[in-house]
Amino acid sequence: MTLPRQRGLTEQAADTAIDTACRLLRLPSIRNEFNEIADRAVKDQMTYRGFLAELLMTECDDRARRRSERRIKAAGFPREKSLRAFDFDANPNIDAATIHTLASCEWIKKSQPLCLIGDSGTGKSHMLIALGTEAAMKGYRVRYTLATKLVNELVEAADEKQLNKTIARYGRVDLLCTDELGYMELDRHGAELLFQVLTEREEKNSVAIASNESFGGWTKTFTDPRLCAAIVDRLTFNGTIIETGTDSYRLASTRARAEEPA
Description:
This protein is α/β, with parallel strands linked by helices and 262 residues long. The protein is 55% helix and 11% strand. The protein has eleven helices and five strands. Strands 2-3-4-1-5 form a five-stranded parallel sheet. The relative contact order is 0.13.
């Protein structure tokens, strides 16, 4: 399709031409915001170059935002969590400086693991989701899953002779966030399948886990001592371990609200 071009377009004709061109070129942000930017350009006496730069940067920024939204959605997080929303004062076991350093995602760039260990209500899942979200916003491919859900998927894939394909799919993402590791005992077959995923990712892509059990208690989840030791080794080598403590800040917060005068 060729757009008619002529000098001396009326304002209405120019707006129509811009709208049509933006549709053809797939520039939705420029199409939606052109009038506002054009009015601001006149008011601020922008040069033609400045006006064009403003238009293009608007499109680039919006595309970056949409890509981040798609990556966050693809990660499969069960709920929204952010670092900004976390109350570091309520749990002094979690060092804010360490978390904000992790938010730079250098550890993901280096394919290093992260372990969040602590009791329920101490912020493990919040941190796991928030750091995963930061990674997705910075352009990394992220996948969130519960440990038991991952193992069940692997068992089903093995039964359907799709195991290699499933392991490869989990191996490709830049960051695999595995929550609630250690809540339930895994049989030997399930533990071995999980070990295959970790081996596939070892020193190639990062794994972040959240567990309510210290490493010493993982023998209740992975009943084979040698396999348990191998899994701990995969998840800690060159990694970061954050112990979130034993005091539930969620419970403390609930109690504080209950004690407030009506």
